[in-house]
Request: fold
Amino acid sequence: MIDHLRPLPEPVPGHADSVIEIRDIEKVYVLEGGPVHALKGITFTVRNGEFVSIMGQSGSGKSTLLHVLGCLHKASAGLFLLDGVDIAELDDGQLSRIRNEKIGMVFQKFNLLTQEDIVHNVALPLVYAGVPRNLRNDLAQRTLELVGLGDRLHHKPTELSGGQSQRVAIARALVTEPALLLADEPTGNLDSRTGEEIMGVFQALHRTGRTIVQVTHDREKAEYSQKIVHLKDGLIERIEVVERPRQAPIVKLGESAE
Ligand SMILES: Nc1ncnc2c1ncn2[C@@H]1O[C@H](COP(=O)(O)OP(=O)(O)OP(=O)(O)O)[C@@H](O)[C@H]1O
Ligand SMILES: [Mg+2]
Reply:
């Protein structure tokens, strides 16, 4: 417990503009049948306010990279500065704190608690952050309004469509106002129109200055972002700048956007 109280180290000077800076990141999974070298030396930067996609074939290391960026896995080698903080220096308590404070994650499966209404689902990260109950519900409601679900607050996840469920998961990821939103195949379980709607939510969030990194194997979805990191066999094949990103139909965020 005491670990949770230790302050995070000071940011490394000179990195104020980048939310993610990784250099020569490697990840080796050690298995009985031998090691799997999932990431073999990845270097790139995500600046504050960028919307970036990671693409590549199945097994190329996309989810592994996202898990490292989300501090769910520690890299086996290399440098990772998150919001200027050197992740390798953190103990487990500091790591879970930085995850709670700075990162929101969205997955292909929405991972919602089906027995609880969506306000409670979205408020959950605030419980871990030690926010008092009244404030928690208030913040959760406002974040649900932000993603356009203000009229569904007391629905349970089973009473929502797939696109609405993913909006709940996005609200849950955003409720702590993280520096970084990470998404692993966020539209993988959705039909193409609903997937486009979720891209609209991401673009609206991006316009309000949020930093987003999404993993997708769908070229079309990647083109909603500004930059595509192409992975192949655990290495970056190339980094592509999307000159004119696709524009999803405009999603108007709720009033708490600013
Ligand atoms: N927990 C694990 N233990 C051992 N090996 C793993 C583990 N997770 C992933 N791998 C291996 O690491 C490599 C990269 O996997 P990863 O899940 O990152 O790929 P991916 O690009 O996300 O693929 P997909 O598009 O299918 O989701 C694969 O060879 C995979 O088998
Ligand atoms: Mg994956």
Notes: Strands lie at 18-31, 34-47, 51-55, 77-82, 85-86, 103-106, 180-184, 211-215, 227-232, 235-241. The mean pLDDT is 90. The pocket of magnesium ion (ligand 2) is lined by residues 62-63 (CB under 6 Å).
